Structures are given as structure tokens and as C-alpha cells.
Amino acid sequence: MKITTTTGGTRQRRRTALGLLLACSALVSSPAAAQTRNVFPPQNGSLPSVASTTSPASNPASGTALRGDTSAQPATSAAADPNVATGTTPGRNRTATQEPPYEDDLNQPHEEPLDRGAEPVETQEQPREPGDPTGIRMGSFLLRPSINQSIDTETRRSSGTKVRRDYLSTAIRGTLTSDWSRHSLTVTGEGTLERNLGSSSQGEQPEANINADLRLDLSNDTVAHVTGGYRFSREDDYDPNALGGASTQSGVHEFTGGASVQRDFGKIRGTAAIDLSRASYTDAKLSDGTIVSMKDRNRTGIDGRLRLGYELSPALVPYVEVATGHTFYDLRRDNSGYARSSQSYAARTGIEFDLGEKLRGEIGTGYEVVDYEDERLKSVGAVTFSGSATWSPQRGTNVDLGLRTTMQDSTTPGQSGWVEYQATAALTHEMRDNLIARLTGSSTLRDFPNGGPSDETVWIGGAGLTWAINRYLDLTGDVEYEQAGGGGTNDKIVRAGVGLTLKR
């Protein structure tokens, strides 16, 4: 009887222990034990985890990623886990060489990220997939050329007269960029040749422009630029220095070169630059065939500037800048007997801003004065405005704004020069994937101080469309209106044209 009792008690205790063991096993395997969320979102969330920047298996290009879910791992003490001391998350810093990636376990609960990050408000804000690259590979350079052939018409109204011409315009453009691991070289060029549909060549405006920029990455904090350029253009009939009654105005050859060094000293940013320029004028031709030399206008200029900025934040850098320059004329005195070589001084202040792809640029204001060698020529001084900005309110829409103030020398006897203010604006909008609309505008104010002629204003407005027929061919259409008033001039010009652009 005693033995039976002992055996029954033993069985009862075994059943009780087995029940407790089953209850503990069910409690450990219950999903409720895995509900503790990690401060870092999983790798497949919208924000990258620590391992996403260290583990090669987390590269999106490979299509696989290490799982960071550690809820199914055995519990360890805080002192034994080395990740606790370094402030990292367990299971996040292990690479594929240390242990194999975890297999997908459908029994584990799906962990939602605490912060999904910024999401687009509308589908148009989502980034676009990059298209096929274009261009011609030339060793370590990439050339992107294009040629446009258009047929245009121009109507000019001036002082009660109306002149119309039809012409062919050929424009060649190209960009050459380097593909180096360090430093970079960018060369841009553009040339336009006009040919009237008739025997007369009056009104033809050939243009050429080429610029090169070599960037040298001297160190992490020091960047240098070496630049050079050439430009050819013909003076407009309503330019203040244009020759009255000329059938062909003077052509201007402009050569530029410069060097600059920018260095960051912590939050202080310093820039030193020097620029050289050379202007050479061709002869002008009067309506009666007389040739007029313009050699007395040939000149060379040298300018230097220093800029000091302070980084309030990566997006805002206010600055102060000082500059000085000297202009040397080839002939000491021009055809009217005036010595027009000059010395200039300028100071300005402004701010650089970079708010990402949406808005970036700079704007500044200051004062500049030009003193002439000839005492009969009064100094020209004025408040200056300068700046540029690029604004993208939405994907496919870009707005470019610009301000510039320059001092121009006059050729009129007794007149030293004038101040020229110019504002430009350009809007491009992608109406469709293969259709782009353009709007352009500019305004130029010529302020003549010291009792000179009345001020002049030039307005230009234009619109255009570009339809990409295919990857290599575009159809373009443009219309432009130009008006110049003041200073005894009142010209109105309307231009329109349609053409084809072949690009590579």
C-alpha cells in the first residue's frame, strides 16, 4: 500500500513537471516574445540600416540583403554582447564572411519601419529612371556634338523703315567632358553661321564661342580652376559704340583666360582669382564702301579678386569680396585724342545658397568705380548687382535667373563710359517625355552718367519648342521679339524659324 502511494505520487509530480515544461515552451515560442522593435528599421525599409553601408551583401544591385531580424536569436547578457558597448545593433554589423545570411523564415512576424522617410507627394516628384547614355567615347573623354539647320525670317522696323530678310542658319554645338578618377576638364563650344537667301549679306550675324575649364583637385580642402575662352560676335546697329551709317559693323574677337584657387579653412572659405581679357576689333564698312579702322579700340585687361566666405550651414555661405583691375589700350590715345586706359576698384557682399536640386545659386551687391587716365574723362561709379540662381519647382521644370552689372567704355568724344545692368530669365518645361517648351527673356539698361546721352533699354522675349523625333533627331521651332529704345533709337525686330537638330 505504501509502495502504491509512492508510485502514484511520483507519477503525479512527473505530470506536473511535464505540464510546466510544456507551458514554458509555449511561452518562449509565442509571437508575443518577438514584438520588441528595434530602433533601426530593417534593411528592406525606406531608411538604410548600419549594415547597409558596411555589408557587401546589402548592395541593391545584387538583389539580396542580409536580414537584420534578431528576434529569433538566443538571448544573451548585455555584458557578453560586444555590440552593446559600441552602440550598434546586434546582428547588423555581421558580414557574409562571418556567418551566412539568414534564410527567410515565414514563421517570423513582419517588422514595419518606424520611419518610412520622405515620400513623394505626387507621382511626378518621383525620380526618373536614367535613360540611355549618348555621346561619342574618345579615350577618357565623352563628346556630345549636335548640329542644327534652320530656315529663319527677320523683320526689322527702325525710324519708319521696314527691312525683311530670309536666311539659313547653321549652328554647331558640342560638349567634351573628361572621365578621370581625379580632376576634370570640360570644353563647350558653339558656332552659328548665317547666309541670306539672296545676294545681299547685310544683317548677317556670325557668332562663335568656346570655353574650357580645367578643375584641379589639389586636396580635400583645395580646388583650383584654370579657364580659357574665345568669342566672336558683331556689334549691333543700336549699340552705343556702333558706327552710324555702316553696312557692316565691326567684328569683335574676345580672348579670356584665368586661374582661381578655393580653399576651406573649417567653416571659412577663401577664394583668390586672376583673369585676363583681350578685345580686338575688325574694320567696319560704310554704306558707300568706305573702310573704317577700329584699331584704336583694341585693349587688354587684367583683373584680380579676393573672396572670403563663412559657412553658416552647408546651404548658406555669406561672403565679402574685393576686386581691382587695369585696362591697357594698344594706342595711348584714340582717334579723338583721348587716353582711355583705366583703373577699376570694386567691393561687394552677398550670399551663396544651395538648397539641393530645388534651388541653388548666389546673389550679391556692391559698388564699382572706374578712373580714366585722361583727366578730361570723368570717373564712372555705380551700385552693382550680380548673381545667378537655378530653381526647379517640380520635376521637368527649370528656371534660370541671372543678374549682371558691367562698366563699358565709350568711343564718343568727351564721354567716358556707361553702366550696363542686365537681367536674364529662362524657363524650360517638359510637357511630355519628348516635348520641351522654352520661354526666355532679358532686359538691358544702359545708364549714361556725367551728362551723357539719354538712357537706353533693350528688351528681348522668346519662346520655342523642341520635339524629340527619336534619340538622334529633334525638330525645333522658335520665335523672338527684340526692342531697343532710348538714345535716339527705336528698333523693333521679330525673328522666327524652324529647323532640325542632329545630335549624338
Walk me through what this model shows.
This protein is mainly beta and 504 residues long. The protein has a single domain, classed as Maltoporin, Chain A. It contains two helices and 22 strands. The strands form two sheets. It has an 18-stranded antiparallel β-barrel. Strands 7-10-11 form a three-stranded antiparallel sheet, with no helix packed on it. The longest helix is centred in the first third of the chain and has 28 residues.
Short description:
This protein is mostly beta strands and 504 residues long. 7% of the residues lie in helices and 53% in strands.
Oligomer: single chain
CATH architecture: Beta Barrel
Give the tally of structural domains.
1
Class inferred from helices and paired strands: mainly beta
Strand content: over 45%
Q: What name does CATH use for the topology?
A: Maltoporin, Chain A
Largest sheet: 18 strands, antiparallel, barrel
The CATH C-level class name: Mainly Beta
Helix residue percentage: under 10%
Number of helices: 2
Question: Low-confidence runs (pLDDT<50, min 5 residues)?
Answer: 1-7, 21-132
The rounded distance between the terminal residues' Cα atoms is 105 Å
Rounded to an integer in angstroms, the radius of gyration calculated over CA atoms is 35 Å
Q: What is the string of helix and strand elements?
A: HHEEEEEEEEEEEEEEEEEEEEEE
Number of E-state strands: 22
Estimate the global geometry from the Cα principal axes.
globular
Please, what is the average pLDDT?
A: 80
Topology record:
Blueprint: H1 2-29, H2 82-86, E1 136-138, E2 141-158, E3 161-178, E4 184-196, E5 207-217, E6 222-234, E7 246-248, E8 251-265, E9 268-281, E10 284-286, E11 291-292, E12 299-310, E13 316-329, E14 342-354, E15 359-372, E16 380-394, E17 397-409, E18 417-432, E19 435-447, E20 456-468, E21 473-486, E22 489-503
